[in-house]
Amino acid sequence: MMNRMSRVVAGTTLLVVTATSSGGCGYLLHPERRGQQSGIIDGATMVMDLLWLLPGIIPGVVALIVDFSSGAIYVGGHRAHVAPNGRLAVRLPRADKSQRIELRLVTADRVVARRTAVVGPADQSIELAMADALPANEPVFLEVQAEGGTSARFATALIVDR
Fold first, then answer.
1. pLDDT in tens, 87-124
2. How far, in Å, CA of 103 to CA of 5, rounded?
3. Domain identity same for 65 and 125
4. In terms of residue numbers, what domain contains 100?
């Protein structure tokens, strides 16, 4: 009788731990992060995954594997900081042929910095400087426009050090 009860409790515990281990990882809590290749590791998600090692090695390892392989453990990819003086240095990618691009720092309603550069086969970087001080908590994004008129805005807002 006692042996059967122990098996039922152990089986139920194993079932509950296995079922909830996938629910306690970044894959389900942060679906918007899936697909990232690298970035800053989210400390809270990492600790949560490591805590799954306490009930057993399998749930913890499964949570870590799922979060790292899906990219859900990374916070927003790479983050850039705008210095307190309103300057941002941007390293331009290499290109096979030279092309003129325009880099802009934008908010929801205005362009706060603009600079034109030529991207080519050599490594180079340019500096963008904001003309005006920004109101607190106003997100700033980096936009790039190519010669042909195509443009892209980075999805992650820049961090403005104040």
1. 778 877 777 888 888 988 888 888 888 888 888 888 78
2. 68
3. no
4. 81-160
